[in-house]
UniProtKB/TrEMBL annotation:
Protein name: 4-hydroxyphenylpyruvate dioxygenase
GO biological process: L-tyrosine catabolic process
Single GO MF annotation: metal ion binding
PANTHER family membership: 4-HYDROXYPHENYLPYRUVATE DIOXYGENASE
Binding positions for Fe cation per the UniProt entry: H184, H267, E348
Cofactor(s) required, per the database record: Fe cation
Domain VOC: 24-154, 181-337
Length: 380
């Protein structure tokens, strides 16, 4: 098994029979209120490295974009420069968030033909962009809310990111890498819309159902949600989709939908090979995580369920790291508090040991932790 197979749970897959073959993640493109500072935060706290840049100095007078990388994960952090930029209205509505879950594909035209035949909205038709480093062919499809999927074929391109970007590094010595890859990206959609978006990913992109979580699994005393997971052929790209379910109080998904003003990306799971080291490094940088109560670790059922894991339970407890086991193996995971002013997007850190799951056994404990924070914000 390769490192990547273990890190993100890849499976064998034959692309030749796939109607919409996806190589993997290309980039997560964010729109934020202050790209200069957000890019600095992701470098200083999350150990990402600056690789490329576009902005007024490179002829782009509308906005600045910083391209950051950590292992196989690429983030593009964009903020408006021109007060009349359309990004200003986008940010005014949604706050900081992910606007584009860009996917790398080998054949943009084939994917767009499939998408069109299955009723997808094509935001940008397939086209070429060229500079001295070669040519990128790309297109973009609409997905939930104001989110899109760019489809990128970079096989004939050797530049630092896309045509128009220049290579750029930071004078500051980068810290130790704390994550290696994107594991999954979760979307929150409105009540009643989860199955519609599951059908979208199945029909348009040929994704398959991986898991679903409904009913008691993920209900707390106060609120509930439903979640289904779709994945591409090799499972590199995994999209859990959540919708609120009716509960006694307002669910965390309702809170997100209110503050993001509609559907959008809720959390991004970052794969790490050593979650203990990662969490210690992030805490040292001031990153805050959701608190896990001691009762979670003292529950004899938990210890029986998880069996032997590589880190002693008291080490996990000291850091609030959650653990779950299924028929394939186990995983360790932890969630940050919201990364932005609005209670919307956050990160998960995940260390997989065979498990292809998402921590179903932890959903209840996790949601209770989120609700304690929601309550503190006056939004429960
Ligand atoms: Fe997750």
């Amino acid at each position: 098994m390769t490192i990547e197979q273990q890190l993100v749970g890849l499976i064998e897959h034959d692309d030749s029979v796939d109607p919409f073959p996806v190589i993997g993640w290309d980039a997560l493109v964010w729109v934020v209120g202050n790209a200069t500072q957000s890019a600095h935060f992701l470098q200083s706290a999350f150990g990402m490295r600056l690789e490329a840049y576009a902005g007024p100095e490179t002829g782009d007078r509308d906005h600045k974009s910083f391209v950051l990388r950590s292992g196989g994960a690429r983030f593009v952090i964009t903020g408006a420069v021109d007060p009349d930029s359309p990004l200003v209205a986008h940010h005014d509505r949604h706050g900081d968030g992910v606007v584009d879950i860009a996917l790398e594909v080998a054949d943009v035209d084939r994917c767009v033909a499939r998408a069109r035949a299955h009723g997808a909205i094509i935001l940008t038709e397939p086209h070429d962009e060229t500079d001295e480093f070669g040519t990128v062919r790309s297109a973009a499809l609409a997905t939930y809310g104001d989110t899109r999927h760019s489809l990128i074929d970079r096989s004939a391109y050797a530049g630092p990111y896309l045509p128009g970007y220049v290579a750029r590094t930071c004078a500051r010595e980068p810290g130790k890498r704390v994550f290696q890859a994107i594991d999954h990206v979760v979307g929150n959609v409105e009540l009643g819309m989860m199955d519609r978006w599951v059908d979208f990913y199945r029909g348009v992109m040929g994704f398959t159902n991986m898991a679903e979580f409904v009913g008691d699994d993920i209900a707390t005393e106060y609120s509930a949600l439903m979640s289904k997971v779709v994945a591409n052929g090799n499972h590199r790209v995994k999209f859990p989709l959540n919708e609120p379910a009716l509960g006694r109080k307002r669910s965390q998904i309702d809170e997100y939908l209110e503050f993001y003003r509609g559907p959008g990306v809720q959390h991004i799971a970052l794969a790490t090979g050593d979650i203990v080291e990662t969490v210690d490094a992030l805490r040292a940088e001031g990153i805050e995580f959701l608190a896990t109560p001691d009762t979670y670790y003292e529950d004899p059922e938990l210890r029986a369920r998880i069996g032997a894991v590589r880190v002693p339970v008291d080490e996990l407890q000291r850091r609030g790291i959650l653990v779950d086991r299924d028929e394939d193996g186990y995983l360790l995971q932890i969630f940050t508090r919201p990364l932005t002013d609005r209670p919307t997007v956050f990160f998960e850190l995940i260390e997989r040991h065979g498990s292809l799951g998402f921590g179903k056994g932890n959903f209840k404990a996790l949601f209770q932790a989120i609700e304690r924070e929601q309550d503190a914000r006056g939004n429960l």
